[in-house]
Design brief:
Radius of gyration: 57 Å
Largest sheet: none
Shape: rod-shaped
Helix content: over 70%
Length: 140
């Protein structure tokens, strides 16, 4: 049936132990060392990130301050520009109103002069009108 060969068994045991030692030295120890180094590198990077995290809060605060200052300055510049344009528009409106007022006064003066001329012309023609009216009434 089953024959047990002691030398063959010993040979397989020695071969198995030799293979274990070789695999441990060539594969398992470098693999474990690599994983330990990787864990240490990750822990180191996490610490560095935490130290940078505190620094980013300060930088974010500075950035917010700069942005708020820029917004305030932009609002001031915008308001100044609006005020300047309102002043310019008001002066243009005032100038145009003065021009129109002057034109209106000139028109009124001309109108009064024409009214006087027409009145004088009508008064000078009055005797003629009277004569023509008398002639018309006499024919009736």
């Amino acid at each position: 049936m089953l024959d047990i060969h002691l030398p063959l068994m010993l040979f397989v045991l020695v071969l198995f132990l030799t293979l274990l030692v070789l695999l441990n030295n060539m594969l398992f120890q470098p693999l474990v060392k690599f994983m330990d180094d990787r864990d240490a590198s990750i822990a180191k990077d996490l610490e560095a990130a935490k130290s940078f995290g505190g620094n980013t809060d300060e930088l974010n605060a500075k950035a917010d301050e700069v942005i708020s200052h820029a917004k305030t300055e932009a609002a001031g510049i915008r308001q100044k520009a609006i005020d300047d344009e309102k002043t310019l528009a008001a002066s243009k409106v005032e100038t145009k109103q003065d021009e129109l007022e002057a034109e209106y006064n000139t028109f009124i003066t001309k109108l009064h002069a024409e009214k006087e001329q027409l009145k004088n012309a009508l008064l000078s023609q009055m005797p003629l009108f009277k004569e023509s009216l008398k002639a018309k009434f006499s024919t009736l």
